[in-house]
Amino acid sequence: MGETKEHKARLEEICESLDIDPEGEKCKAMEGLIKEAESFLKEDAEDDIRDAGIIANAQRMEHYEISGYGTATRFAKELGHSEIAKKLHKTFKEEEDADEKLNKLAENRINEKAKS
């Protein structure tokens, strides 16, 4: 949760430097991913299968964030905002790291239990 707060603060700082209001529209795609995850949690499943599904849903959200931060980083570079690009890239790398942690958790433990 602390990392998410850092990401939010970083985005607010970027928006301020660009004179952009950070309070925009909600992302409908992310809302859809969250609804799908919530729907999955309501299903009747064994604990190991539920754990594997939670990780899968979390990874889908991470991949969406990775894509967004990667694109924003590229745009910032193209527009000559190198400091902003560095900040966005830092968040991009943190999202990649989170995805890798989820992947290792799934590979090393959860998916094996869910198969059995």
From TrEMBL:
Q: Please give the residue ranges the record annotates as the region Disordered.
A: 96-116
Give the highest taxon in the source lineage. Answer: Bacteria
Write down the InterPro entries for this protein, in alphabetical order.
Answer: DUF892_YciF-like, Ferritin-like, Ferritin-like_SF, YciF
Q: Name one Pfam family in it.
A: DUF892
Composition bias of kind Basic and acidic residues appears in 100-116
Write down what this protein is called: DUF892 family protein
The organism named in the record is Membranihabitans marinus
